[in-house]
Amino acid sequence: MKKLNEVIDCLKRVPGVSECILTLTYREAADIAEAFSALEKRAEAAEKKLENQEPYGWLVGLPGLYPTFTLDYRNVEQAIKAGGYEITPVFTRPAPAVGLAELVPEGWKLVPIEITQEMVDANFEGVCKGGIQSGYRAMLAAAPEPE
User: Fold this and answer.
1) Residue 70 sits in the same domain as residue 32
2) How far apart are CA 120 and CA 117, in angstroms?
3) pTM attached to this predicted model
4) Dist. CA 118–CA 110, nearest whole Å
């Protein structure tokens, strides 16, 4: 992930992508490819969830003209029979892509911006028992999970 972030930072800084030169080891390139593959799988899962979601309504219109919004599927059926209409389903909210936990790379954890008292207490106990690393691990373990 570190190398992927480096690539992204480089691409943001340079006006022309061809001017961005990076050296990647085979392992780093494979890690980046693996990360993109995982993102692609998540996107496919999100599309499948969206396909199963019922639309709230539809936009129905002729190409190049402003469409009309309808809640009544009979209007959609009429447009389908007439032919030539563009029909776009409208959803009240998008289907969730994936659970938040699935977005966090392995070996990482989401933590709150503001430290909680439980995290402070766990860190103190961990440091007293086994040093800074122990305190850090205890603090991460005490961090609340996102909803």
Assistant:
1) no
2) 5
3) 0.36
4) 16
